[in-house]
Design a protein that fits this description.
single chain; Arc Repressor Mutant, subunit A; SPP1-like_terminase; two-stranded antiparallel sheet; Terminase_Gp1_N_sf; Terminase_ssu; viral genome packaging; mainly alpha; viral release from host cell; two-stranded antiparallel ribbon; 51% helix; 177 residues
Length: 177
Amino acid sequence: MEEIELPKGSEPLKNKQHELFCHEYLIDLNITKAAIRAKFSEKSARQHGWVVFSRPEVQERIDFLKSQHIKELGIDAYYVLKNLKSVAERCMQSEEVLDRDGFPVFIEGPDGNVAPQYKFDQSGANKSLELMMKHLGMLSEKVKHEHTGKDGAPIDIKASVSIEEFKEARKEILNEF
């Protein structure tokens, strides 16, 4: 019979405490809390947690368990993006502001006309759009600062000081110290 190779991390770990750590880590992705819940000493949980977490077999097991959760929940990048889009659109819809009795609140505009007041969830819309942009690579976490010369060429620097002027200025600077 032909042996079938199982995916990495699919077998439970031999060390039961490490196996428990893997499952506990997936609850909140907090290494120290996972170590405490896996019955490591609270005093040394942070250190032991990192030691266990950095083991290759633990990483493989966590990755496998994560992939199983994703499969079971039916979550993929398309699902997440679709729902982020839905949240952003819902947050950008304006809603009438109502008073305690359920009647629209009216405000006077700059032109003197009275109109109903509206609100929308700007922070929810911004966060959803930000997450979508990061996923799609439209938003970089690090700002890249590059300076170039004309047409993208290196900056052309020309010294406008003669060697004699440079030596004289250098001598003055060194004499000040």
